[in-house]
Model the fold of this input.
Amino acid sequence: MSIVAYIAVVGPGETAARDAIGDATEIGTLIARRGWITLTGGRRAGVMAAAAAGARAAGGLAIGLLPGNDRSDASPDLSAALSTGLGEARNAVLVTAADAVVACGINPGTVSEISLAVRANKPTVLVKPSPSAAEFLASIADGAPFQVVDTPAEALDWLVARMIAAHH
Amino acid sequence: MSIVAYIAVVGPGETAARDAIGDATEIGTLIARRGWITLTGGRRAGVMAAAAAGARAAGGLAIGLLPGNDRSDASPDLSAALSTGLGEARNAVLVTAADAVVACGINPGTVSEISLAVRANKPTVLVKPSPSAAEFLASIADGAPFQVVDTPAEALDWLVARMIAAHH
Amino acid sequence: MSIVAYIAVVGPGETAARDAIGDATEIGTLIARRGWITLTGGRRAGVMAAAAAGARAAGGLAIGLLPGNDRSDASPDLSAALSTGLGEARNAVLVTAADAVVACGINPGTVSEISLAVRANKPTVLVKPSPSAAEFLASIADGAPFQVVDTPAEALDWLVARMIAAHH
Amino acid sequence: MSIVAYIAVVGPGETAARDAIGDATEIGTLIARRGWITLTGGRRAGVMAAAAAGARAAGGLAIGLLPGNDRSDASPDLSAALSTGLGEARNAVLVTAADAVVACGINPGTVSEISLAVRANKPTVLVKPSPSAAEFLASIADGAPFQVVDTPAEALDWLVARMIAAHH
Done:
């Protein structure tokens, strides 16, 4: 039996580090190869754009949830870009729509998504966070499934195990 | 040049009339044949489910925006089902994400979507509405592009003309 | 025992008719005199502004839910103006926060609020609607408590009876 | 000239520490004494309930934004309790409605509010955070006005200076 999971790939936009962009691209590809769906914040920048590009390159579905009222700043690699008109409340919708969250890099928007994910008890994995981010976010995760990894492949392996566990 | 348009197909769920379900199925198919994206309220019922099934039958993309926090009541024919957790506020998101709205049948939720669509000046087409619905909703449409039609094919023809006009 | 009810007073903004503005002012006053709370769409225009002014004149609480991100266009008579940043999705929040809805005049935004209210089975009263609005909106109200009245006093009498009924 | 500011007081609910509850009560009182408005997450628990009680004790206005569809779990000390029906997206609305945010204690929901506040460049003050919370959240605040304090009085002094600065 195959399980379709929806994975939100979150991280900085314009200020994303090169490393985070490379990781997000690879994660989008790995999600797509499993037949899973990539969700992003939709914009044509940084981690959001990279995850969509990675998913597309592997023939997968990538759906973006934009904060604004139109698609003018949507990533061109999305299968579908949905303008929510909700502003920053779209972060909560992105997390609600996802079964799990992967973060590549950190900024305030990313932290809001990670914290809402652990609050909702959704598996949350951080790729190469700083020591202080890893320590603090682990401390608030409490009982939620939470992991820090060094590579996209480890992130996916961990998520696959969580998704399988959730269906048993 | 091809334009990708996002069309929300709205209408009753469990209480949808057989006619509305047939029309929604055909509209989903026609949207898909143009390479456009079908948006629905996501649930496995009535017009929402029919539009997704029609789109899928023609190999198109159908995306549903669910009011709740999980996908338990999602239509099985959706390409992606997004739980928004927003309750009825998801109707506003559905309209914001859409370039145009087609209504097959009427209930209070549908009326909220039609009214938000005309408020946002988005092309809105009603398939076989009752005379009182047609008269009243036309009266509030004011300057917004608004049309009443008898068949799915007419709905699509009208939408195609509107979408082309919007890009010139 | 006293019951505090939250009543949303909805209607057009800049395009409100003089009659609707007068009715909304009186309704705000009548809500305040009962010790109830007036909710509005928050803007400094039309029915929203009038209901807040009426509530304030009688020493009542009036709270506005604005669509935007700041209070620059808030009615000055509100006890509190809350920027939601949700755009038109704030209409759904306004209805969810209310126990009942009174409409003075009609435009698309108002119709979205009336339809969401009857969908949520909340008492909904229209003051002096046009015959076509009254007929159509009554037709979608289905089993929801729905009334058409000629005066603000009748609107309040009907709401008081509904609120008392709801607490027995 | 007097400036009315809206201050969101955020922190844990059922799991709030005694200290955080005491601080939130005092902060609600200090906000009220300035004639400002206290905003909370609305529930009858922890920091939310304490801030409302403190504001009420000083005759101030306290408004709660609840995640659910009714007021059954609202704090009894609120001037008004607004059911948003938005689930966790109400955190974003709470921050948008506020001019500044004070956090007493930390949990995932609180972190989502702090991070959205610094993202929106709103003054954000943490009362007695743990060293790791203080360090990490300061690191994401970037250019946003951000402060760590030991007492409610210091929190208010800092906020007053920020609000005055914002109006000059």
